[in-house]
């Protein structure tokens, strides 16, 4: 049968109208309309999610009834699933708009910032793509993101303004920030307003967010000396720091066990100190980690611990006519000379040792481009080691002070003659206020929160970074690697304990630069890294960024953190499991407090 041209025209018009209708539906349509065109899950699932009393409730779906996926329900119902929670949110319209393309316009000047923003935009796009199930594409609609940055600042320092505003109105988002670092946080927040609803990427219709962190130092310590962690795992960890708006990767790169840093100026260190040839960090590796981190709003603070926690890697001095650079290396019985095997401590009486240290500092300053902050270590000096090994057995406290003075001189020289604004030392019996210069020194306190280390320092106007071991040491509570029974510290701090710790409530906050969670590496390598770090480091991230503390916010944290955990998974992290998935699908039904109020 031949089709008359007049019918063809009508058919075409109808087809065009249908197509336009579908486009409009996907673009602007309500969820109900969208799910009429949605295939599989909508046909298959016996359930749908309703929003009742600000929480998603799962309910059996009647024949032919529309399907709302949980991903959509939890974006549109109850507390906003952002992590860390921004400071101010207003004008939110949680109905959604679909899109498939993203265009980022960059308005910034300076030598490095436009380039860094381009890279940050790539990361942003990649993060959205990661929400799509494999093999799917989302094509319809375009989200336009305009990023405006005022200053050419391209290195993160303690004074960097990390604030941003995000103004989202119908597929146009404007992110305004003083610095690149604020803008990148804005992109991160925007990515958390986007989800995949089984059909397309969706984003809220409107949101206005003004945000800034409560603390400027928000760190994660990884130890790559007890066990080596390959670079890809470090990069993956940086992705997760960025997702959580943490801004310092404190890299404890060497210890008495191994020295994996292949220093360009002192190649002997890694040759003697690395576990093997493939367990080293070359200068290129470090440059790569540093620039990867910078684009993600993170600075890399590399610590070569000294004078203690320094043994393997330092044993080449005598062979090279420089005497013993370190003493007590691998000495037994270890518990007479150090806190954990193997022992090793720099030789404070050997002038060659300071030369080597100075060269290492030069390398680090160059590789990290860090001029305002440096970590000198200083952890757990064992006086018995020095007393047993050194000829000159005079006042050990004087030796510690001498070492610190010389190390600081070497650091200042490496830093083109200027002492950094913040030279961090681990807290110890030696870091008494009278031994410190409050203009330069910052003490990282790590004792339990009831040891009172912080008050003594704050009283004398010494700046601190807090890492209380009973809450923020993430390696505690996993047993004893040296024998039977419990490990050196415990119990394990759950994410709730990490989250609820607010050490600053007792103190004047002005001298608290921030905090850091520490994952020491005796029982951790790339295989257990993610699970030990996440989601607990993310719990810490919200504490240190937002520090919200209403009962409501702590209750809400369960659900919001579960969403953030899913986001980390979408970006390739393998975090620990928080609870049965049933609890994510039935918000608050697993919480003790909630259940008891139901009775
Ligand atoms: C947000 O953007 C919209 C559209 O560009 C604009 O009309 C509105 O004034 C902006 N809001 C603020 C607070 O800047
Ligand atoms: C270096 O240390 C070894 C012991 O480890 C010792 O036998 C030797 O005498 C020391 N050398 C110097 C110059 O002190
Ligand atoms: C870091 O410093 C090196 C020189 O030490 C320089 O070549 C490089 O451009 C710097 N990178 C940045 C991002 O400042």
TrEMBL record:
The chain crosses the membrane at residues 12-30. InterPro entries: Beta_hexosaminidase_sua/sub, GH, Glyco_hydro_20_cat, Hex-like_dom2, HEX_eukaryotic_N. Residues 108-193 form the Beta-hexosaminidase eukaryotic type N-terminal domain. The active site is at 380 (proton donor). One of its GO terms (biological process) is carbohydrate metabolic process. GO terms for cellular component: plasma membrane. One of its GO terms (molecular function) is beta-N-acetylglucosaminidase activity. Residues 215-547 form the Glycoside hydrolase family 20 catalytic domain. It holds the Pfam family Glyco_hydro_20. Its EC number is 3.2.1.52. Keywords: Glycoprotein, Glycosidase, Hydrolase, Membrane, Signal, Transmembrane, Transmembrane helix. Gene3D superfamilies: Chitobiase/beta-hexosaminidase domain 2-like, Glycosidases. It catalyses: Hydrolysis of terminal non-reducing N-acetyl-D-hexosamine residues in N-acetyl-beta-D-hexosaminides. PANTHER family: BETA-HEXOSAMINIDASE (PTHR22600), BETA-HEXOSAMINIDASE FDL-RELATED (PTHR22600:SF3). Belongs to the glycosyl hydrolase 20 family. This is beta-N-acetylhexosaminidase.
């Amino acid at each position: 049968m031949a089709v008359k041209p007049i019918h063809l025209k009508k058919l075409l018009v109808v087809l065009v109208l249908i197509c336009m209708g579908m486009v409009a539906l996907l673009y602007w349509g309500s969820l109900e309309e969208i799910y009429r065109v949605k295939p599989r899950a909508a046909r298959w699932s016996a359930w749908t999610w309703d929003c009742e009393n600000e929480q998603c409730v799962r309910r059996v779906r009647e024949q032919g009834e529309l399907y709302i996926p949980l991903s959509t329900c939890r974006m549109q119902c109850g507390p906003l699933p952002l992590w860390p929670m921004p400071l101010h949110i207003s004008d939110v319209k949680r109905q959604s708009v679909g899109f498939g393309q993203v265009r980022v316009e960059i308005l910034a000047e300076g030598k490095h910032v436009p380039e860094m923003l381009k890279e940050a935009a790539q990361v942003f796009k990649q993060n959205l793509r990661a929400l799509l199930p494999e093999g799917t594409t989302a094509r319809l609609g375009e989200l336009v993101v305009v990023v405006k940055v005022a200053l050419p600042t391209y290195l993160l320092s303690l004074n960097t303004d990390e604030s941003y505003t995000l103004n989202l109105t119908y597929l146009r988002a404007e992110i305004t920030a003083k610095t690149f670092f604020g803008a990148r946080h804005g992109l991160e927040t925007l990515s958390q307003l986007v989800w995949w609803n089984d059909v397309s990427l969706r984003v809220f219709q409107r949101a206005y967010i003004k945000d800034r962190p409560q603390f400027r130092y928000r760190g994660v310590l990884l130890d790559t000396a007890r066990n080596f962690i390959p670079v890809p795992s470090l990069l993956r960890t940086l992705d997760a720091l960025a997702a959580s708006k943490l801004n310092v990767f404190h890299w404890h790169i060497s210890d008495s066990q191994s020295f994996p840093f292949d220093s360009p100026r002192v190649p002997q260190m890694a040759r003697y100190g690395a576990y093997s040839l493939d367990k080293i960090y070359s200068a290129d590796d470090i440059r790569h980690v540093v620039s990867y981190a910078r684009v993600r709003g993170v600075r890399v603070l590399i610590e070569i611990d000294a004078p203690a926690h320094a043994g393997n890697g330092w044993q080449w001095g005598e062979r090279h006519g420089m005497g013993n650079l370190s003493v007590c290396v691998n000495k037994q019985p270890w518990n007479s000379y150090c806190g954990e095997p193997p022992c090793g401590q720099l030789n404070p009486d050997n002038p060659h040792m300071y030369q080597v240290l100075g060269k290492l500092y030069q390398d680090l300053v160059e590789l990290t481009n860090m001029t305002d902050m440096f970590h000198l270590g200083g952890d757990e000096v064992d006086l018995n080691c020095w007393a047993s090994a050194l000829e000159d057995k005079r006042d050990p406290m004087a030796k510690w002070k001498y070492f610190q003075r010389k190390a600081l001189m070497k650091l200042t020289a490496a830093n083109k003659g200027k002492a950094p604004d913040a030279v961090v030392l681990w807290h110890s019996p030696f870091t008494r206020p009278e031994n410190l210069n409050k203009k330069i020194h910052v003490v990282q306190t790590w004792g339990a929160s009831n040891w009172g280390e912080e008050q003594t320092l704050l009283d004398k106007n010494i700046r601190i970074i807090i890492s209380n071991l009973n809450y923020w040491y993430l390696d505690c509570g996993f047993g004893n690697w040296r024998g039977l029974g419990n490990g050196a510290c415990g119990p394990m701090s759950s994410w709730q304990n990490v989250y609820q710790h607010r050490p600053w409530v007792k103190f004047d906050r002005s001298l608290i630069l921030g905090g850091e969670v520490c994952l020491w590496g005796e029982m951790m390598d790339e295989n257990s890294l993610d699970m030990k770090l996440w989601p607990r480091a993310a719990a810490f991230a919200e504490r240190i960024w937002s520090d919200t503390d209403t009962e409501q916010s702590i209750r809400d944290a369960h659900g919001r953190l579960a969403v953030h955990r899913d986001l980390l998974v979408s970006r390739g992290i393998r975090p620990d499991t928080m609870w049965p998935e049933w609890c994510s699908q039935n918000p608050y039904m697993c919480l003790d407090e909630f259940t008891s109020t139901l009775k």
